[in-house]
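Ticket #4471: structure export looks truncated?
Reporter: QA, pipeline team
Priority: medium

Steps to reproduce: submit the single chain below to the structure queue and open the exported record.
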Amino acid sequence: MLCVLAALALSAAVYPPPYPPPYPPAPSRAGADGKPRAGAEEKTRIPFTRRFDAVQHGGIVRAANAAVSCRAEGTGRDPACAKARAGGNAVNQRFDMFYSDVDDDPRTYNSTRAELRLPGRARVNYARLYWGGNLRVGEQKPPGDSGRVLFAEPGGRYKEVLADTVIGHRAGGGADAFQASADVTSLVRDSGPGMYTVAQINVAMGRSAVGAWGGWTLVVAYKKDDAPLRRLSVWDGFEVLDARRPEVRVELGGPRVPARATGRLGVVAYNGDRGVAGDSLAVETGNGKGVLLSNKDNPSADVMNSSITDFESEPLKRQPAYPNTLGYDSDVFDLRGALATGAHRLSVRIGAEKSPLWVGVLFAEADARY
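Actual output as written to the record:
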């Protein structure tokens, strides 16, 4: 109890209001009245729906990072933290978790960076920033602050970004989870590739039976004249998987995908634990049984394992760049095995048998024709 009170007192004494001036607003989609919305409306469950869909020469890329980690240095450090950060099997509730803060701005209490890689001559035509995490750990964060973050393009200064859609928010089982998002197409189109920074994600620090977790993912669709013709789609929602509902299925639909097509599937999820088997990811195509997805970093029986990975490229540059994110997943999987005989439709099935798992984003690309 004393530790919790001390953490709360420190937060109140040291951290300034989360969005002090003079941060300008980022260009983003406005509400019906022409004004940006803070996404004040909340729902405890949001079924997955299509956010973006196009058939074009191009692809989808993303940048991502976690907002909290264990303490390996300073007051409250844990000798096991360094090994966990480096990729060892460990879960967030094992540690006293604290914010990552990589910028030099004294007004922010959490900030992380990640690289957005765009191929040469690519033209951004859609970009959405997602952020979320657990509001209740050793402290309780006010849900009213969940719809705002600070966002900086490569070499730029922070802009205040407001959620422009309904925020997923559900308390239960000791956690208080949320996810919010905003259209940031104009800013990313003008800024291009490089290191993006996100700060002031409304996640809690500390230690509890459910642990601290949270992070952000920037999903970007681009056009490129000499790239393959692909169907690109982004879906989002807010679904919790637990003992009462251990599986969720999302129908991505058509169009038909040719045999031996290439494709990628990205997933953003919260509270996945490394070393705790029981969660799975499968794709069904209408041509037979579902195919379990996995790769060298995400085993099929522990696919949501606190990682930020891409099966076909070098690891994204991130600051910090811990292999074990301790509760935040933003992973990209190879669909070639699932698409070997083509597809009439794509259906994604996510399962969790043990720890509760919150799923927030799916994004996919697949060849439309050769």
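Status: closed, not a bug. The export was complete when the record was re-opened. Leaving a note from the reviewer for reference: Confidence is low (pLDDT under 50) at residues 1-21, 28-36.
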